[in-house]
Amino acid sequence: MTKAKQNYDFQKIVAVTGVLLFVVKLVAWYLTHSVAILTDALESTVNVTSAFIGLYSLYISAKPKDSHHPYGHGKVEFVSAAIEGTLIACAGLLIIYEAIKNLLGTLEPIGQLDYGILLITATAVVNYLVGAIAVKKGRQNNSLALVASGKHLQSDTYSTIGIIIGLILLFFTKMVWLDSVVALLFALLIVYTGYKIIRDSLRGIMDEADEELLKKMVDLLEVHRPPEWIDLHNMRIIKYGSTLHLDCHLTVPWYLNVHEAHQEIDKLSRLVNESFGENIELSVHTDGCLDFSCEICEKEGCAVRKAEFRQRVQWTVENVSNNNRHNAS
Predict the structure, then answer these.
(1) Among residues 2, 39, 47, which one has the least CA distance to residue 21?
(2) pTM of the model
(3) How far apart are CA 156 and CA 43, in angstroms?
(4) DSSP tag of 291
(5) What is the CATH class of 3-205?
(6) Which CATH class is domain 211-321?
(7) Strand order in the sheet with 231-240
(8) 109 burial class (0-12, 13-18, 19+ CB within 10 angstroms)?
(9) What's the angle, vertex CA 34, arms to CA 33 and CA 39, rounded to 5?
(10) pLDDT by residue (tens digit) across 71-96?
């Protein structure tokens, strides 16, 4: 089963979970008439909408390449995440509005808090577990849409925890205003979570460099580089859904024939696939070494060496990202 198919199947679970938990929260609100539970239920409508948006985006991103989309359809996940982040932020703002309105208006009596607390606690546990699994699977499969769905469920859990705290305090103190105050505080956290998801999606849409991913790749190649890999530069990594595209220039001895140079590319490809999975496409351009390359070349017994080896250039994110060959200076 491909990673894209795994993401799609799990997103179905997220969507169904969102619908069921929304129904449970409506029952809890009907029993208690708590404004905090009502706002939590309102946020769950966003959960349901976002879950189905994420499901559709994963369905699209799982489609194979075609003549109109030579890099696949993975970019749709960034659009989906941007919509979902916007909905999360709007839900947080709506909760803030409802909480403030309730504080400034007439506070209605709240009943059957014991049942309400039990139902809302159950939704919090289920939300967090499903969300945590979604985030883990999304990161393993490089799916921003699945990560966004998981974070959304987790942010819903945080707000629900605040509501539970407020309801417990309300149960013992009978101070009705606590219902709205706690909901207001956790709504701010929801807005911030929405902002972060929007920011990550825009990074993907704009092909912003993923410094953490690039560092992992560079560190891997640095540790396992053979003497034939004299230099590495102009490295770039782009995400398209669950697929990674790696471009780089690899300097090898100039006297290697085409077949031998391609063998070095195969070595690099195997190394990357073993560590990052098969869902990665490589575009490696080989350059023949020049005279100044001798001073950084560790290959022993080279019959055409023009200068003695002086120093080993350690590959870092900074120097392999530049489109310049390295030398000993």
Answers:
(1) 47
(2) 0.59
(3) 7
(4) G
(5) mainly alpha
(6) alpha beta
(7) 231-240, 243-252, 280-288
(8) exposed
(9) 115
(10) 666 677 677 778 878 887 887 888 78
